[in-house]
Amino acid sequence: MARMTDDRSKTRRTFLRSSGAVGLAGLAAGCLGDTGSTSSSTEITMILNPAESDVDIRSQYQPLVDHIESEVDVTVSLDRASSYAATLQAIRSDRAHLADTSPSAAVAGSNVADVVGVRVAYGAAQYFSLITTMPDSGIEELSDLEGETVSMGAQLSVSGTLVPMTMLKNAGLDTGSAPDGDPVDFEAQHSDHTTAAEQLINNPDVAAATTGAFSTAANVPKEQFDEMSEDFVELSAEYENAGTADQELQLLAVSDPLPRAPIMARSNWDDPIREDVEEAILNAEDLSHDDDYEGEELWFSNVVEGSHEDYEPIQKVLDELGLEFEDIS
């Protein structure tokens, strides 16, 4: 399991603006749709985090929109962000009122956005990061990944990159200046959770994938979780469906429990209706689609009240990697 040390004496680095996936290039107005006038008390925009490339996230989130609009006199517009960083940029530039974000944004955006609540997936307010390989890869433990190619999530993804980097580091691999730079002992390829898993399965040059458990737990036989992580067995919403996918993957590592992603609200959103919107989100009980819906269901069942303090484990991950997010928060 990942050991999240809180070593605040370490030299800290800051993610720099760049043309890479973490940089703010492409976050100008053209990246997000026109959100309309933010002065209107009945029109609000929610920015959505692009965690999985194969999901129509606007359709996926429609039950939450329908619930908010049924409880409060507002019209909710959904925008898919171009990157993890773009969710915070939309909040920072006052172009969105609400944000579906990665857990890292609760730390990175603490000066521009408030945590409305922590999302719960069928009773579980915590989730896990997995590192997997192909069963015939010859990779038996994390240290075997030295000199190999690892397919990872986006550079700001907690379960797809940040936590796995600490797991690899604690296994003795030199992670260098990753994730804003290159690791020394292995090559990291960044994309999203779905793509990372697909690259592992389809590209023989990729030795392992680092993803959220929601992406690859179904590929791992239950007995491997039973042997490796009691926390996963007891806490993970993904354990029930473990081993049900056709393509089997071998489990190399499971993280400690992580707080699930928050829904955040822009701190300077000063409108009386904000309280009603937040209350509606926290009171939502049925976020399922109609029976004729054929797309991906919303991955969380409800939202419980939360705060930035819930994401202190993520701060410890950033501290261990020596990272700050001043340039995007």
UniProtKB/TrEMBL annotation:
Q: What's the superkingdom here?
A: Archaea
Q: Read off the PROSITE patterns from this record.
A: PROKAR_LIPOPROTEIN, TAT
Write the protein's name: PhnD/SsuA/transferrin family substrate-binding protein
Species for this entry: Natrinema longum
